[in-house]
Amino acid sequence: MTQCMPQPDAPGKIVILNGPPRAGKSSIVTEIQNSFDGVWMNLGVDRFKAMTPERFQPGIGLRPGAERPDLEPLVVTLYRAMYDAIAAHSRLGLNVVVDAGHHDHYSAPLGILRDCADRLRGHFVLFVGVRCPVEVALERRRATWGGVGYRESTSIADPVSLWHEAVHAHGGYDLEVDTSVLRPRECADLIRRRIQDGPPPSAFQRLS
Question: Where is the active site (predicted)?
Fold first, then answer.
């Protein structure tokens, strides 16, 4: 693997993996960091959740359903901070991979995704939809946590199904991957080929 140091004169590339929890985003992030040329920093929802005080959890990871309107102003600020940090890393020549779960299913539309796109205007941003069937996500949850806190139903009222609906409601991507049929390495290879061979990404900028 070629080792490439950051070049401040050449902004780093940004890959945003957008999908519901348990879709497999973290495993793809690991593959990108381990196999792509250059330095790839992991900046995303999980990292920002880990930095957030317990009394403000789940913070930036607030799920769809308007359950905590008191936290929504903080969620807006956390997303702004995260995307400003992503832009700062890119300007210094560092590549960034982001695991995200963008939705606008709050007590009222917050327009977070559009604001995030504005903050990355002019940067190379590949917007990747990470999908898997609801049944697969439920099975992964059961394997990890025994299904605690989630009903077995897969109706749209179920929190897991609501995630899968809301997170992809914004429109199109530059690339989509299905982790129920592709392994993380295969997903990363598709992302690498798209970065190398084009066409230039445009989905995220169309949101701004």
Answer: 46
The three-point CA angle 139-143-149 to 5° equals 80
Domains along the chain with CATH numbers: 14-132+172-196 (3.40.50.300)
Euclidean distance between CA atoms 53 and 35, whole angstroms: 33
Residue the block writes with tokens 């879709």: 23
Q: What is the mean pLDDT of residues 151-170?
A: 72
Residue 67: both structure tokens together: 């359950």
Three-class HEC string of 96-150: EEEEECCCCCCCCCCCHHHHHHHHCCCCCEEEEEEECCHHHHHHHHHHHHCCCCC
Is 20 marked as binding a ligand? Answer: yes
Mean pLDDT is lowest, of 26-30, 148-152, 166-170, for 148-152
19 annotated to bind ligand: yes
Active site residues: 46
Structure confidence at residue 6 (pLDDT): 66
Q: Mean pLDDT, the chain, as a whole number?
A: 90
180-192 tens-digit pLDDT: 999 999 999 999 9
* 93 annotated to a ligand binding site: no
Average pLDDT over residues 119-130: 97
- Residue 90 marked in a binding site: no
